Amino acid sequence: MTMSTKPRILFFGYSEVGYSCLSLLLERGDNVVALITHEDNPHEKIWFKTPAVAAKEKGIPVFTPESVNTSEWREKIAALKPDLILSVYYRHMIGTKILGIPPLGAWNMHGSLLPKYRGRAPINWAVLHGEPRIGMTLHRMVKSADAGAVVDQEGVEIGPRDTAEQAFRKVLPCARAVLTRQIDALLAGTVKETPQDETQANYFGGRKPEDGRIIWTQTSRQIFNLIRAVTDPYPGAFTELSGVRLMVWWAETDTPVVRAITGRTGAAGEILSVSPLVVATGDGALELTKTEWRGAPAQQLQVGQRLA
Q1: Which residue from 172, 141, 159 is spatially nearest to 68, judged by alpha carbons?
Q2: What topology is assigned to 209-294 in CATH?
Q3: Looking at the whole model, is its pTM more than 0.85?
Q4: Which of 39, 125, 305, 308 has the highest CB neighbour count under 10 A?
């Protein structure tokens, strides 16, 4: 079969998951007619490979529209005559008028074990909630986000101290494994689909830097999970003293000082020790082991002060 007669794939994607899956298609010699992706955000730390790199190496056209859900872009997409749409970590919703264009359907690779953790930033949310297992799911795209029938998924165990980046690195190969198993069936129109169990579904929105604020009335484990879910390269967890922000890049729930202090009376957020820095939580205390004052000179900390 020549390249011209192979099914025409229109790839929507971003992130290193997008890079990995697009690279697989290009390595196979599949007929990728274009990449629709995002401009890198100058306010975001780009710590991952992006699919534009893989596309440009192979001379694949790259487009970065602010929205594809306009009449102009629907016409452009229709003109590309895609037989199949594949979306991998594309950050915008794709309207049903576009999803209905390719005769072989439109499919998405989502970073969770659906039906759990539909929506944005699924790996960060899973780490924040202390999940022991995460994964990648290939599913049909429908009007509602991440709600279409499942084709295949693969999971991996993550540890209770893994950061979101470490969890991402562990789960990244799952996307390529799933696509490797299913791409021929997708292109042949023979994939088998299983409807999602709506009773098990949950949805989470995108995370903003402000969502990293520590709520000291939560348990030590909940706060620790927040810290590891948003630590570098993400925007980070934080607390404040007298209006000055203290970034918390790492903490420990069980250290000699924490064990010695636990049991003392202390309101949530109260500084129980300055060196090392130990703060009372909803059920004990947390030692803040890596911190950074942001936007102002370092504040003088004293036992008994309250962080908020």
Answers
A1: 141
A2: Methionyl-tRNA Fmet Formyltransferase; Chain A, domain 2 (3.10.25)
A3: yes
A4: 125
